[in-house]
Write a structure and sequence with these properties.
single chain, carboxypeptidase, elongated, cell wall biogenesis/degradation, alpha+beta, cell inner membrane, PBP_dimer_sf, 5-stranded mixed beta sheet, 699 residues, transmembrane helix, disordered C terminus
Length: 699
């Protein structure tokens, strides 16, 4: 019996249900089919290029070809950094038939050290079958030819000719150009740029090579290689050439740069030369230095050890990173400040050789005194007492703004990653830094370029160029960024003229007589300077002050020199800073060094003749001395691993060594408040800058 409410399934009802389900299924099938067809059309038409490229990349692999770096040239187009042919040998893993035999033969032919064999084996294991593995680079022709003639016995070996960085002047341009090196693993992980792991590719690690990297790098080329689905090499296709980097022109005169580096001799020091009409830097030298070719090729452990242990700190760019009390080189600038404040140039101060201030005695470098001197005489004879007295009356807060206007304490827009810009102190600065007031002793010490005053050699050269030109010249190193119309300084032209006359008197009859140019018709104006780096106690004074020649290198005075020429119409200006020179060797002292460098600009033959007379007494030219130093160091030290120091290690350790040198050279020491280190009768003040023994520099 059929219950009430039950539905009877008739044939008509069943047929209707089946038809409805069939239509739904058909509609679903049509929808899926339409979707698939649309997707296929999208992939075949809209995404055709994308998937064609993917397909092509599965069939063809690209091996990048490192781009040739752009040249760095001087103002005349002479190369400062260029590229030389690089003979290298690589291995193509997929073509190597007997790895152990081939690598063993290469090790023997190329005389590779044992640890290089381990490196090659490790790279072969992790390298893709078609990607080259570097065996050796910078090969001489004999070794390159020895591999080339035995290629039938060395399947998978690929001797190639590429390009590597070359610095014709070597160490003379090291701190200017910097050097190049291979990318570190960390750098590759940051960028994932395949060029970074391409054999032979190097980029800027320091100096201009680093800061101008975007201009110098260029664009890589590529070798197209057809491979199977499993990555096996089938054949090499056409090669896409690289695009070389741009050539960068500097304001540097390469001949002057090399001459200045040679003329510094065995000194630890720096030289900067300006065109004082435009602010173009004609030379910027820091010596001693390293050979950037060695760094770029892979420096040996022994050479690295020698450089990092050298107390002359060849890894440090002293032009920008060295800070020194400028000593008496600030006296012309201080004289300008006095004139601008209304002091008469004819007013005289009597120099008796010493001056008492409170319970302290400040001495002049001339023990018996100079007698009465006006401003020009005080600058010419470098009299400390004149400046002590005048700036005691005026107050150093009236001098500091002039010092800043002349370039001290400034950081300039140059293509380098680091500059240290020193200190121009005043009462507000001391209160902020030391939470104590400015004293008369501070003013007296600052008046002779000691105390808290610190400057780098570039700033001292800018000071000389601005005094010479009367204009706010800005240092320029790139030819495309020269300001050829600098503004005038905010000082009276007649006051600048008086200061220039006083600097001419320094050479014609003052403390800088040895710097007189031997070029007929051209006179030079200059100012000498000495800055002590140690305290001279009363006990030492009573027993006899030790001369610089009796002191260890690090305790000797710094020697400074600023100059410009011609004196009556200045065109060139320069600054020479010699660390711990102590005026111990005449032909290595600042006056003769400055004279010869300036002579080069007017009479190159005369300058070269002067250099050739004295250079043999220093042990030869730069390369000869560096080679002899390395030989002596190797002989005195146990043999170290002969393999190159990894570039990333060298770069990191170089930075650490320079930081340590800077910290040591500018470590804080107590000040004595005593000029020329004569007596120490004022209370000591802690935390004054290093090298500020409050000496009256005097010469």
């Amino acid at each position: 019996m059929i219950g009430t409410g039950s539905r009877i399934a008739t044939d008509a009802a069943q047929g209707f249900t089946f038809t409805r389900r069939a239509m739904m299924l058909s509609g679903l099938q049509i929808g899926v089919g339409t979707l698939l067809a649309g997707r296929m059309a999208w992939l075949a038409v809209a995404e055709n290029e994308h998937y064609s490229l993917m397909s092509e990349s599965n069939r063809v692999n690209l091996t990048l070809v490192p781009p040739r770096r752009g040249w760095i040239v001087d103002r005349h187009g002479a190369p400062i950094a260029n590229n030389r042919t690089d003979f290298r040998v690589d291995l193509i893993p997929d073509r190597v038939e007997d790895k152990d035999r081939v690598v063993g033969m290469l090790t023997q032919i190329l005389a590779l050290p044992p640890d290089e064999r381990g490196r090659i084996d490790a790279e072969l294991k992790k390298s893709a079958g078609f990607r080259p593995v570097q065996v050796a680079e910078n090969l001489d022709w004999d070794r390159f030819a020895a591999v080339s003639v035995r290629l039938p016995e060395l399947p998978g070996v690929a001797p190639t000719r590429g390009f590597s960085r070359n610095y014709p002047a070597g160490a003379a341009v090291a701190h200017l150009t910097g050097y190049v090196g291979a990318a570190t693993a960390e750098q590759y992980k940051e960028t994932r740029d395949p060029l970074y792991v391409t054999p032979g590719f190097k980029f800027g690690k320091d100096g201009l090579e680093r800061t101008l990297e975007p201009l110098l790098r260029g664009k890589p080329g590529a070798k197209r290689i057809e491979v199977t689905a499993r990555g096996k090499l089938v054949r090499e296709l056409e090669t896409r050439p690289d695009t070389p980097g741009r050539t960068v022109r500097l304001t540097i005169d390469a001949g002057l740069q090399e001459y200045a580096a040679r003329r510094l001799g065995t000194n630890s020091g720096s030289a900067v030369v300006f065109d004082c009409w435009t602010g173009e830097i004609l030379a910027m030298v820091s010596m001693p230095a390293y050979d950037p070719n060695s760094f770029s090729d892979g420096i040996s452990h022994n050479e690295w050890k020698m450089l990092s242990e050298d107390d002359h700190v060849p890894l440090m760019n002293k032009v920008l990173q060295g800070l020194y009390p400028p000593g008496s080189t600030v006296k012309p600038m201080n004289g300008l400040a006095l004139l601008e404040a209304g002091v008469s140039p004819a007013e005289r101060v009597y120099c008796s050789g010493a001056m008492r201030v409170g319970n302290g005695i400040f001495h002049c470098h001339k023990r018996r005194g100079h007698g009465p001197l006006d401003l020009q005489g005080a600058i010419a004879q470098s009299c400390d007492i004149y400046f002590y007295e005048m700036i005691r009356r005026l107050g150093y807060d009236r001098v500091a703004p002039v010092a800043r206007a002349m370039g001290l304490g400034q950081k300039f827009d140059l293509p380098f990653t680091s500059q240290r810009y020193g200190t121009v102190p005043d009462s507000a600065w001391k209160q902020k830094k030391y939470k104590t007031g400015w004293t008369v002793a501070d003013s007296l010490n600052a008046s002779i370029g000691q105390g808290y005053v610190l400057a780098n050699p570039l700033q001292m050269a800018v000071m000389a160029a601005r005094l010479a030109s009367g204009r706010m010249i800005q240092p320029a190193l790139l030819s495309a960024r020269v300001d050829r119309s600098p503004a005038a300084l905010p000082f009276k032209p007649e006051n600048l003229a008086l200061v220039r006359q006083a600097m001419a008197a320094v050479v014609s009859g003052g403390t800088g007589g040895a710097s007189r140019l031997q070029v007929p018709g051209i006179e030079m104006a200059a100012k000498t300077g000495t800055a002590q780096v140690r305290r001279i106690t009363m006990a030492e004074r009573r027993s006899g002050v030790l001369s610089n020649g009796q002191l260890p290198f690090k305790l000797r005075d710094h020697a400074h020199f600023i100059c410009f020429a011609p004196a009556e119409n200045p065109r060139y200006a320069a600054a020479i800073v010699l660390e711990h020179n102590g005026h111990t060797v005449r032909n290595l002292d600042t006056p003769l060094t400055g004279r010869d460098i300036m002579t080069y600009l007017f009479d190159r033959d005369r300058a070269m003749k002067s250099l050739e007379e004295v250079e043999p007494t220093w042990g030869g030219d730069i390369r000869t001395r560096m080679s002899a130093q390395q030989t002596a160091f190797n002989a005195a030290n146990a043999p170290a691993a002969s393999s190159p120091l990894p570039p990333e290690d060298a770069a990191a350790e170089a930075s650490n060594v320079v930081d340590a040198a800077i910290e040591a050279s500018n470590a804080t020491t107590p000040t004595t408040g005593v000029a020329e280190g004569r007596t120490a009768e004022l209370p000591l003040e802690d935390d004054a800058p290093a090298g500020n023994a409050q000496s009256g520099d005097a010469r």
